[in-house]
From TrEMBL:
Family matches, as InterPro entries: 4Fe4S_Fe-S-bd (IPR017896), 4Fe4S_Fe_S_CS (IPR017900), EFR1-like (IPR047964), Flavodoxin/NO_synth (IPR008254), Flavoprotein-like_sf (IPR029039)
Record keyword Iron-sulfur present: yes
UniProt-recorded name of the protein: EFR1 family ferrodoxin
Molecular-function GO terms, alphabetical: FMN binding; iron-sulfur cluster binding; metal ion binding; oxidoreductase activity, acting on NAD(P)H
Domain Flavodoxin-like: 3-151
4Fe-4S ferredoxin-type domain segment(s): 187-217, 224-244
Record keywords, A-Z: Iron, Iron-sulfur, Metal-binding
NCBIfam families: ferrodoxin_EFR1 (NF038196)
Domain of life: Bacteria
Length: 267
């Protein structure tokens, strides 16, 4: 039996949670640990082969209350071979809305058997203040408790999928922020590059959409999903967003969502 940590994680928070659950579960089961990170485009040309006896801990961040829509086509090429799976979503302290249900359905529709689920909190991709530093120690302890819960559940002879919060298929629409002048639409917003850019090219290496080219790292030539990878990982702090709608939404989030949300485990 292998325990798989499988995740998309542009700024690393989903990776931390899925890895913590995987490590703890491996220790409990004395099982082999494997990881598959599909954040970068080069990884998304196929999937590992999962075996029926494997357990797949499958994590994605919540984008607009749902599974990131740019991943849907790729996720539909998954093949679970009857393996047990645990959908895990990580969100930036607003809400996970229907993302966990949607991820559970994607896994189920592609041949996995979901046996548990969880929603954790990660520092918001748009911000360095909202859910700052999360997942933190308390979250990692909770990830370990989640692994214990999965371990206990595995002793059962048959598995009932857990009841998850959210609206079942066809789900609610993607969350859309509202500003003073109506809906805020940030879909076409792209990052800008400040004068501190030293041309290192890390932004091109970490863009999950492959939208920043090494030949011209100051420009984002393809689709931008606002994942925060180029902004948060730039060693010179040179990438930023300055579009007014984006900034208005950011202000709303940072000012309105200061209460700490806690992880939710569904076993
Ligand atoms: C385009 C976009 C939309 C997001 N929408 C939500 C949301 O609806 N609710 C929420 O709480 N966080 C939202 N977030 C924040 C991310 O879910 C959060 O920062 C997550 O920890 C990022 O995971 P990662 O570090 O693995 O990339 C959004 C982030 C992005 C980039």
């Amino acid at each position: 039996m292998k325990i798989w940590a499988v995740y998309f994680s542009a700024t690393g928070t989903t990776k931390k949670i899925v890895a913590a659950v995987a490590q703890a579960l491996c220790r409990r089961l004395q099982a082999e640990e494997r990881a598959f990170d599909f954040t970068l485009p080069a990884a998304r040309c196929g999937w590992p082969e999962f075996a029926e006896e494997d357990i797949i801990l499958f994590g994605v961040p919540v984008y607009a209350g749902r599974v990131p829509n740019v991943l849907l086509r790729y996720l539909d090429t998954l093949s679970g071979n009857g393996a047990l799976a645990v959908p895990i979503v990580v969100y930036g302290n607003r809400d996970f809305d229907d993302a966990l249900i949607e991820l559970r359905d994607i896994l189920r529709n592609n041949g996995f058997m979901p046996i548990a689920g969880a929603a954790f909190i990660g520092e918001h991709a748009f911000s360095r203040r909202l859910a700052k530093g999360r997942p933190d120690e308390k979250d990692i302890e909770c990830a370990k408790r989640f692994a214990d819960g999965i371990f206990e559940k595995l002793k059962q002879e048959t598995f009932l999928g857990p009841k998850l919060p959210g609206m079942p298929f066809p789900y609610r629409g993607y969350y859309q922020p509202r500003g003073e002048k109506g809906m805020i639409d940030i879909r076409r917003v792209k990052p800008r590059t400040g004068s501190s850019c030293n041309g290192c090219g890390l932004c091109a290496d970490v863009c999950p959409m492959g939208s920043i080219r090494h030949e011209n790292i100051r420009e984002c030539t393809g689709i931008c999903i606002k994942c925060g990878a180029c902004v948060k990982k730039c060693p010179a702090g040179a990438k930023y967003f300055d579009e007014p709608g984006y900034l208005e939404h950011l202000r709303q989030l940072e000012e309105g969502l200061t209460r700490r949300r806690e992880p939710e485990l569904f076993l």
